[in-house]
């Protein structure tokens, strides 16, 4: 079973629908005991970094997430979850979880896309450019497009960057390492390629629970 973390930051229901479609057992929960018993944790979210961190801290779920990582259980951050897994967000000048080194920065409004100033937030379908192979992108077509909605993006160490995309500038779209991944776009809203990413995460979780490893 996968646990979808409920911390009042929205988007949990659409993730659950996608997992239900795939036949993947899951539950939306804020119960630390349920999170602790799950094979893996999905950390989605929409909204602002400051408000999200307040909810996490007030509920004690920030400590729950740190325990997930320290215990080696798989974790997948999506959108806002991706942004607050690093140490600091420029949105609301917010100290964030620090699960991975890095910071979240705002798109520069002076950037251009197609010869015109970009609009913030970035909303729409973009392809990604892979910087390294990763189980989270296994069998995902190289030309697949994914749905993005965001005004901020993560800057982290180059060796953590799995894939980038472009909107006025090249930005990190997927980062992390085996078993600890973060995705800026919404896989649950990105059709078959996005569903494949969620399926890849579940396969990794099941292999780890069985004591194996996904290649």
General description of the model:
The chain is of the alpha/beta class and 215 residues long. It has one domain: Rossmann fold (3-Layer(aba) Sandwich), CATH 3.40.50.880. Helix content is 28%, strand content 30%. The strands form four sheets. It has an eight-stranded mixed beta sheet. The two termini are 21 Å apart. The model has no long low-confidence stretch (mean pLDDT 95). Keywords: Amino-acid biosynthesis, Cytoplasm, Glutamine amidotransferase, Histidine biosynthesis, Hydrolase, Lyase, Transferase. The active site is at residues 79, 186, 188. Its main location: cytoplasm.
Beta-strand portion reads 25-35%
**How many whole angstroms does the radius of gyration measure?**
16 Å
Count of β-strands: 16
CATH topology: Rossmann fold
Distance between the termini: 21 Å
**Main β-sheet, in a few words?**
8 strands, mixed
Shape: globular
Under CATH, the homologous superfamily reads: Class I glutamine amidotransferase (GATase) domain
User: Can you tell me the CATH architecture?
Assistant: 3-Layer(aba) Sandwich
User: What is the number of domains?
Assistant: 1
- In the predicted model, the low-confidence regions spanning at least 5 consecutive residues are none
- Number of helices, where a helix is a run of at least 4 consecutive DSSP H or I residues: 6
Into which percent range does the helicity of residues fall? Answer: 25-40%
CATH class: Alpha Beta
